[in-house]
Amino acid sequence: MSATVMRAPAAQPLDRHRLLVLGLVWVILLLCPFWIPFIGGYTSLGTRILVLGLAAMSLNFLIGFTGIVSFGHAAYFGLGVYGCGLILRYVTASTPLGLVAGMLLGGLAGTIIGALITKRRGIYFAMVTIAFQQIFYFIAYKWNGLTGGFDGLRGFTRANINLGFANLDIIKNDYVFYYFVLFVFAIVAGVMGLILRSPFGRTLLAIRENERRARFLGINVERHIWLAFTISAIFIAIAGGLYALLNNFADPSSLYTDLSGELVIMCVLGGIRVFWGPLLGAAVYVVLQDWISSHTVNWMFFVGLIFVIVVMFFPRGLLGILRRRSEA
Amino acid sequence: MVQRKSGGFGRRRVLQGAAAIGASQLAAPFIVSALGETPIKIGFVDPLTGSLSIQAVSEVQGAKLATAEINKKGGVMGRELQLLVEDSANDVGTGVEKIRKLIDKDHVNITMGDVNSGIAYAISQVATQKGILHIVPGGHTDPITGTACAWNVFRVCNTTMMDAGAVTGLLIKKYGKKWFMISPDYAYGHSLKQSFQHYLTAAGGTFENVYMPISASDYSATLIKAKAYKPDVLINNMGGLAQIDLAKQFVQFGMNKDMGMGATLYELEAILAVPPAAQSGFASMEWWWDQPGVPYVKEFVAAIYNAYKKPASARHWFGYVAIHSAKLAVEKAKSLEGIKLAHAMEGMELPPEVALQKKKVYYRAGDHELMPTIFAGEVHPPAKDSPYDVFTTEKWVDANKVLPLADTGCHMKFPA
Question: Is this complex's ipTM strictly greater than 0.90?
Answer without folding.
Answer: no
